[in-house]
């Protein structure tokens, strides 16, 4: 699980830098209405951060629709 969270944090950092290249970490934390220390934990993949904070960041980055697909079952035409 730690590897998955590390990747999530890495992807968040890369997406932030792509969409808001002039924002500092502090600037982006303000955009997300998240404390700076919490946002830093997010980019490190810290497990103690609430999913709601990741959702806020995803919403700012235009990626919130991905959350609704997290546990979505793929359609299986053969076993219906």
What does this structure look like?
This protein has 80 residues and is mainly α. It has a single domain, classed as lambda repressor-like DNA-binding domains (434 Repressor (Amino-terminal Domain)). It is built from 4 helices and no strands. Helix 1 crosses helix 3 and helix 2 packs across helix 3.
Short recap of the structure:
With 80 residues, this protein is mainly alpha-helical. Helix content is 55%, strand content 0%. The longest helix is centred in the first third of the chain and has 18 residues, at 2-19.
**Mean of residue pLDDT values:** 90
Shape: elongated
Unreliable runs: none
CATH architecture descriptor text: Orthogonal Bundle
Number of strands: 0
- Our Rg estimate from Cα atoms comes to 15 Å
- Main sheet? none
β-strand percent reads: under 5%
Helix count? 4
